Structure formats: C-alpha cells, structure tokens
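hey
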C-alpha cells in the first residue's frame, strides 16, 4: 500500500523530533562526572580524552511533554490538497477526456471517417475497456477513482446501445433491451462481488433509464410494467443480501416516475383492470420493503415509517383516481381491503430487527389501517351517516386502544371524534319533522355517548394528560347536549310560527310565540344547570359544579338583561321566580355543607351555623 507524500513527510518530521528528544535525555542522564580510572601496572594504556563535564545547573529542566500527532493548519491544508488532487481533479479529468473525445468523434463523424457501425463499435469497446481498466486502479487501492471510471464506462455502454437502436436503427428494440439488461445485471454482479453500494446505484439507475432510452411512443403497458416488476424484485433482493436501504427509495422513485409518465400519456378506463393489477403488485413489493429496512435500523426507525406511509399514500391515490370514476362504493370497499392488508402486515415480524423500530413499524401499520377505514366512511356513506360512522369508529378505536394500552390508537380515536364533531357543528344540516325522535338527536346522542366513553376511560388513569382529556370531554359533552336541546326548542317554535303564518293575526301571534320561546330557553338552561349541580354533588366533582355555576351565571345575566325587557309580564315573573328558587336552593346546599366541602369547627355552634 503506497503512503501519500504528505503523510510520509509528516512521519519523517516526527521521527526527527523523537531522535532529538532521545539525544537530549541521554545528555541529561550523563550530567554527573565520570569516576577516575584505577591505574594499572601491567601495561600503560593511553587514556582517552575525558568527556567535557557539563556545567551544573541550579535546577534541572523538566522533560518536555511527549509529542503527539496533533492536526495543525499545515495538516489540514495537506488534507484539502490531497482531497482536491485525488477526488476533484480525477472527476474534472474524466469530464475533460469525455469532452475531448466527444469533439474528436464529432469531427470524425462530420468528415465521414467513421460510419454508424464503427461509431457504435467504438462506443461499446470503449465502455467495456474503461470498466476493465478501472479494475486495475481498484486493485491498487484507488477505489473512488475506479468507481468514477466504472460510471463513465457504464454510461458509454448505455448511450451506445441507445444510439444503435434510436439513432441508427442498427439493432431491433428487443436486442437493445436484452443488451441493456445484460449491462444492468453485470453491474449488479460487480456491486455484490465488490460489496459496493455505489455500483448498485449505477445498475438501478441504468435499469430504470432503459425504458426511457428505448421508448418508441407506443403503448406497451404489460411489457413495461413486467420489466419494472422484475427490476423492483431485483432491488428488493439486493437489499435482502446487503444493507443498502437507499436502493429501495431509488427503486420506488423510478417506478413512480415511469408509472406516472405512462399514465399521463396512455391510460384510459378500458385498461383499469390491468393497470390496477400492476399498481397492486408494486404496492405489495414496496409494502414489504420496510421489513427489510428494519435490519439496518436502530432506535425509532424513522426511515421504514416514512417509506410505509409514502407507499400507502401513493397507492391509495392511484386507486382512488381510477376506481372513483367507476363507483364510489367500490372505492370504499377497496379502501377497507387495503386496511385489512395492513392489519395482516401488523402480524409479520422481521427477523434480526431492533425491537423498538419493529414496534414503531407495527404501530404505523395499525395507523394506516385506521386511516384507510376513516377515509372509507365518507366515501361509502352519505349525509349524516358519515358523521355517525366517524363517531362509531372513534368509540371502537378508543375501546381497542385501552385494551391494548396503545396511545397511538387513542390519538386516532380523538382524531376521528374531532372529525365527527367538526362535521356535526359546521357541515351537517338537518330537516326534522318530529320533536326529539329525529336524525339530529340521534347524531348528537352518539357524539355524547362517545364523549362520555372518553371521559370514563380517562378517569381510569391517574396522570395529568388523562385528567385534561376528562375535563375537555366533559365540557364538550355538556355543550353538545345543551346545544341539541336548544335546537329542538328552536325547531318546535319555528314550526309554531309557520303554522301561525296561515292566519290573519300573524304579527301578534308571532310575538307571543317568540316570547314563549325566549322563556323556554331560560327555563331549559336553568333546568340543565340544576341537573349539572345535582350531578356535581352526587359525584363529588367540583369541576362539574363549576360548569353548573357558570351556566347558572349566564342564565342569570340573560334573565336580568334580556327577559326583563322582552318577556311578557307572566313569563317575566316566572323567569325571576324560577331563577330565584334555583339560586336559593344552590346557596342552601352550599351553606349546609352537605358534602363537607369546607372544614367546620368541632363545636355545637358550628353544627347549627347553617340553620
């Protein structure tokens, strides 16, 4: 393995520094004067000159700290220089060679030096030669340069085969397709044997480019989609053997681009069955892809979740565009069928996968199934049954979520409930002919029941989010119940006004009906507040009692501000009397302290304080 010149010079400098340090240490250890040599009588021997005695120092200097290879600005500049020289210059050089050769070939073609067959032969030979030449650089350790050359050679092969078919008509489309398939397969084999993902990217990119290069403007749906199916299965096989999950995104994008391009140009309703069949095959392949991704995920596993969601959304959109032209009911059943597929996928367990990522993917499958069911409701049902369907779905999800201890299912339950309540309050328009026993009261009753179920399950938990959900559900329940009853009162008196309109005493009768209606509003709200107060005392719930007090306060304001001026004398008297009795009853209940809401002194006087 060859060492770059910059690293060699850096290593040489460190060796020199270490040599100097060793010399300094040896000099420091030899500071004491040598002992005098003992004279001998055998034979005089010339004494060697004594080494110079170093001058003693007062303090010995501390040994210098060890020198480590700390990257300096010089090293950083060397790295940048090496990166420019080894990476950037090779790409620029390849581009320069390609441009120069293209000018030369163009000049040769323009002057008739080389005919069509020779041009194609030169391209094929040059492409194969460049690929083989790149192996020489790979064996010497220049992998990046080798891959760049392979990309060049593979591109030349594809373009040469394209020119042989499209430009010069030297070979038929079948032969060109087979040759391109051989190039793609050979590149995949190189990627597997050399364990190189970038070569697999080259192969898949070339594979998806083949139909574009060989397109003749003729509709060949079965041939095109069969080829894409084989290419997607090959991509899935690559990811099965190698941890190259990015190939799945590349395969999905290539399939989608070619599918949409064909659809915009050739699709019509007569091809619904064939097109939907191939779309389902693509969906199935890529629905299995996240299970292969799980082997490479750690932690939350965001990539498989995104892939599963994008695949489901794409497939549903494709099917919706095609099927709704024929039947909306069929689309609703189709949506439920796809939801069943995700329920089945939820039971598939990927081997050697991170448990956290696998659990998140299972929850994503459940979420997709529930989302498809939610979408199927408005597609299949009509009018107010859509709202009821969302409420029923919310109740089922809530029950299943609490059984499975799944927060995600509870979130979807609340989502379905919000959709239902929003449609009920904003969109639904009811025309009732009967009082109370009508479709509007049925829809409101279902909504109130679901809210009550949410509040009930929230009371089973003892955390702050559950307490907040319980309060919100309770308030929403009471608002919906009061609104439903108020609307029934309004409808009743509206029918009375319509009946009164048939007579000659229209204005007088309308005024009397309006006064009666306003009084009924006050009576209804006061009665509902009283019931809320009783429930609050019974359940020992200060939150419910506070709702009753707020409703009573609003009713009091209405009586003093509105009823005083608008109601007739009898209704005005009744409003004030009923309100006064209600307020006195509530006040008496608080003063008696029946529920021990406030502490009392332990004395006889304290027991009679409220009398």
């Amino acid at each position: 393995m060859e060492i770059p010149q910059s690293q060699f010079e850096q290593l040489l400098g460190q060796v020199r520094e270490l040599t100097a340090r060793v010399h300094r240490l040896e000099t420091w250890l030899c500071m004491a004067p040598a002992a005098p040599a003992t004279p001998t009588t055998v034979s005089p021997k010339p004494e060697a000159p004594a080494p110079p005695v170093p001058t003693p120092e007062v303090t010995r200097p501390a040994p210098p700290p060890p020198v480590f290879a700390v990257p300096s600005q010089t090293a950083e500049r060397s790295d940048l220089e090496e990166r420019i020289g080894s990476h950037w210059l090779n790409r620029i050089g390849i581009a320069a060679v390609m441009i120069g050769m293209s000018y030369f070939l163009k000049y040769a073609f323009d002057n008739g030096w080389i005919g069509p067959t020779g041009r194609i032969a030169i391209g094929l030979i040059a492409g194969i030669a460049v690929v083989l030449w790149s192996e020489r650089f790979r064996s010497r350790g220049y992998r990046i340069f080798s891959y760049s050359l392979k990309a060049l050679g593979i591109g030349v092969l594809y373009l040469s085969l394209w020119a042989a078919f499209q430009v010069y008509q030297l070979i038929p489309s079948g032969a060109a397709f087979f040759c391109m398939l051989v190039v793609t397969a050979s590149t995949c084999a190189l990627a597997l044997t050399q364990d190189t993902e970038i070569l697999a990217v080259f192969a898949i990119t070339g594979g998806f480019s083949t139909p574009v290069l060989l397109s003749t403007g003729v509709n060949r749906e079965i041939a095109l989609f069969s080829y894409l199916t084989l290419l997607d299965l090959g991509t899935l096989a690559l990811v099965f053997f190698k941890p190259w999950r990015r190939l799945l995104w590349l395969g999905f994008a290539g399939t989608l681009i070619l599918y949409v391009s064909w659809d915009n140009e050739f699709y019509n309703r007569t091809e619904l069955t064939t097109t939907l069949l191939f779309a389902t095959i693509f969906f199935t392949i890529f629905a299995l892809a996240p299970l292969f991704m799980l082997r490479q995920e750690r932690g939350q596993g965001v990539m498989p979740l995104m892939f599963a969601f994008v695949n489901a959304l794409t497939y549903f959109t494709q099917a919706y565009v095609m099927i709704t032209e024929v039947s909306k009911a069929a689309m609703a059943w189709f949506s439920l069928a796809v939801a069943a597929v995700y329920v089945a996928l939820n039971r598939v367990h990927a081997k050697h996968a991170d448990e956290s990522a696998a659990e998140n993917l299972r929850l994503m499958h459940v979420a997709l199934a529930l989302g498809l069911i939610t979408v199927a409701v408005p597609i299949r049902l009509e009018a107010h049954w859509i709202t009821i369907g969302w409420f029923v779905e919310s109740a089922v999800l809530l029950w299943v979520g609490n059984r499975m201890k799944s927060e995600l299912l509870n979130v979807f339950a609340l989502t379905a409930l919000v959709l239902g309540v929003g449609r009920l309050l904003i969109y639904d328009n009811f025309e009732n002919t009967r009082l109370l026993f009508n479709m509007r009261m049925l829809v409101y009753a279902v909504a109130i029941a679901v809210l009550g179920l949410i509040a009930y399950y929230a009371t089973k938990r003892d955390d702050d989010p559950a307490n907040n959900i319980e309060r919100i559900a309770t308030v929403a329940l009471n608002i919906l119940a009061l609104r439903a009853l108020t609307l029934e009162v309004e409808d009743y008196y509206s029918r009375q006004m319509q009946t009164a309109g048939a007579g000659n005493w229209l204005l007088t009768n309308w005024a009397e009906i309006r006064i009666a209606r306003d009084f009924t509003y006050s009576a209804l709200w006061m009665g509902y507040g009283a019931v809320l107060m009783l429930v609050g005392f019974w359940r020992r719930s200060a939150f419910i009692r506070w709702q009753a007090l707020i409703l009573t306060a609003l009713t009091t304001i209405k009586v003093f501000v509105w009823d005083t001026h608008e109601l007739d004398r009898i209704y005005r008297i009744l409003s004030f009397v009923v309100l006064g009795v209600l307020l006195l009853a509530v006040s008496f209940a608080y003063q008696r302290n029946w529920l021990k809401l406030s502490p009392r002194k332990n004395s006889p006087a304290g027991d009679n304080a409220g009398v």
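The mean pLDDT is 77. Residues 239-380 form one domain.
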